[in-house]
Amino acid sequence: MHIAVVGAGYWGANLVRVFHQLGALEAICDFSGERLARLADQYPDVRMVSSYDAVLEDPAIGAVVIATPAERHYDMARQALTAGKDVYVEKPLTLHCEEAETLTNLAERQKRILMVGHLLEFHPAIVRLQELIDKGELGRLEYIYSNRLNLGKVRREENALWSFAPHDISVILLLVKQMPIQVTATGGTYLQPNIADVTVSTMLFNRGVRAHLFVSWLHPYKEQKLVVVGERRMAVFDDIRKTEKLQLYDKKIDLVNGQFVVEKPAAQTVDFSPEEPLSLECRHFLECIETRRTPKTDGHDGWRVLKVLEACQRSLSLNGEPVQLEPTRSMEVVRA
Question: What is the DSSP code string of 47-74?
Fold first, then answer.
């Protein structure tokens, strides 16, 4: 398999590293000559290309991995699919649901693979947590919250919601297995006009399940934590911890003489595979290319995340007014 990574900046450099380790990296495409020169020293067996058109016209390259700024994702992915390439796009797939739908339909017509980089869906801890939920270990889901906080990296092209939240939204949808029926979002803009640095989003699902998502690049310390509360047990995934990242707690709350009595539970550490999530994700893309099977995070998955992001952005613009999502489009396959 011959892959070209397009965009070798902050995150693209990680994709370059992993696809090279997997023996699939044919070329690196970037518009910065200085960056290409530096990468040429690091990867002397890989071709350096400054023209995206040259990548698309090269018959030796069967797939492209797009890690450019989000506003360029749609045009570059559309060009690659039209050129007959399989495509992996970093999150978010596009900036508009209509564009995601167009790409999904184009990939189906071209019989090409289209995959979105929703990395957390491949994290072994999230995979293990999903297994526990599916087996009923937590009981009926009641509440989920996710914090993704850090000091930086401050973006100029997109707000904190669009920069940080796609991964967490994709995981919440994966675990709940449905789309929210209503979202609300509020936030604050402190560093740049009209670009929110901090947002808090709330999602309401059928059967009363709720989730909230707090993202910020103006936080004094880094935190990446997901808490899932079920009727029987609770799970905590703390991705910042070096060890014991996934833990289960029994939910022991009894009503005694009209008073709630809470027994503070001990944590039970849950083991999971130590494999690097990005390596698992990139291998999945290569396997989909080889087998021609639909990726776990395909265009439909990207569309669903965008649908929630757009609704949250609308609520954010309306100072937290609730926004309803169309129930008929929930988790169905996107068709033109």
Answer: EEE--HHHHHH-TT--EEEE-S-GGGHH
Q: What is the pLDDT of residues 263-312, one digit of tens each?
A: 788 899 999 999 999 999 999 999 999 999 999 999 999 999 999 999 99
Asked if residue 36 lies in contact with residue 30, where contact means CB atoms within 8 angstroms, the answer is: yes
User: What pLDDT was estimated at residue 256?
Assistant: 79
Instruction: Identify the residue with better confidence: 41 or 257.
Output: 41
* Pairwise CA distance, residues 149 & 257, whole Å: 41
Residue type, 168: D
Tens of pLDDT along 147-200?
Answer: 999 998 888 888 999 999 999 999 999 999 999 999 999 999 999 999 999 999
Question: What string of H, E and C letters represents the secondary structure of 202-220?
Answer: EEECHHHCEEEEEEECEEE
E strand segments, the chain: 3-6, 25-29, 47-49, 63-66, 86-90, 114-117, 141-151, 182-188, 198-204, 210-216, 218-230, 233-238, 246-250, 252-256, 259-263, 268-269, 323-324
Cis peptide upstream of residue 153 (ω within 30 degrees of 0) = yes
Count of C-beta atoms within a 10 Å radius of residue 188: 13
Rg of the chain (C-alpha set): 21
Q: Against a cut of 0.70, is the pTM above it?
A: yes
The domain made up of 3-118 is a member of CATH 3.40.50.720? yes
What sign does the dihedral 317-321-327-328 (CA atoms) show? negative
User: Could you say which of 3.20.20.70, 2.60.120.200, 3.40.50.2300, 3.30.360.10 is the CATH number of the domain covering 121-278+305-329?
Assistant: 3.30.360.10
